[in-house]
Amino acid sequence: MTARTAARTREIDKGFLVGLGRAAGGSIVFALPVLMTMEMWSLGESMDRPRLALLLVAIVPLLVGLSHYIGFEETETWADDLRDAFVAIAVGFVTSAVVLSLFGLIGPHLSFDEVLGAIVIQTVPASFGAVIAQGQLGQTDEADRRRNRQAGYGGSLLFVASGAVFLSFNIAPTEEIDLISASMTPWHAIALVLISAAAMHAIVYSVGFEGQSAARPEDYRFWSVFLRNSLPGYAIALLVSAAMLWIFGRLDDLGASATLRLVIVLGLPAAIGAAFARLIVGGQS
């Protein structure tokens, strides 16, 4: 091995370790609201195990896509992105285990299954924080910015889905959404649908948040952009909301009307999360 090759290897290893440290920091930041939420502590013990496993499997494609566009290190191939997705899950798992242990929420007083469930449920938001730590907490170079601009329509929808998953995950287990949906009339539900879709469009294209200039097409026309981007984005937010509610068992034994209201209620924060994630893309769709 030549001196130049050895130096290059050390540089790559150092860069990966720096990225790993940044990923750990990002996982803690993104997971703390869930780590300190009482509903999540009990969910890890009681949640249906096949659904929990399905949730963990379902986030892998999202993490792969996030790694490809704004991962915690630059990658060349999809195999690298898949590796980084599993690294993010591993980082999220370890940081969640450490924090839960420090809080005294897991330990010898629980069975192995209960401990594992408590850690895995927290790993979901932690892994999102780990994989996007570079985009949010690190220094983004020109190559990363070029890659973000080339995300295109498919990349923007991936970010929409990721944002919807992250925010709806934090809210779906709470009892407050049950109280809100129970107090709503059909007219409230219709109004909430319209406001959610309008808010999603406004956040991305109208109110001047950072990243809007890159997301907004040069030939912007309201109806064209709304039908092509905002409406599919809101549909994704609703689908993600329904999936999250089902995974957490919130739709079990509910009728069609109650289910629809609950999905619409969760669809509001999911749409907001999707909209801000769309801005993070910074890509022209």
TrEMBL record:
The chain crosses the membrane at residues 12-32, 52-72, 84-103, 115-133, 153-172, 187-209, 230-248, 260-281. It holds the Pfam family DUF2391. It comes from the Bacteria. Keywords: Membrane, Transmembrane, Transmembrane helix. The keyword Transmembrane helix applies. NCBIfam families: TIGR02587 family membrane protein (TIGR02587). This is TIGR02587 family membrane protein. It comes from Ancylobacter novellus.
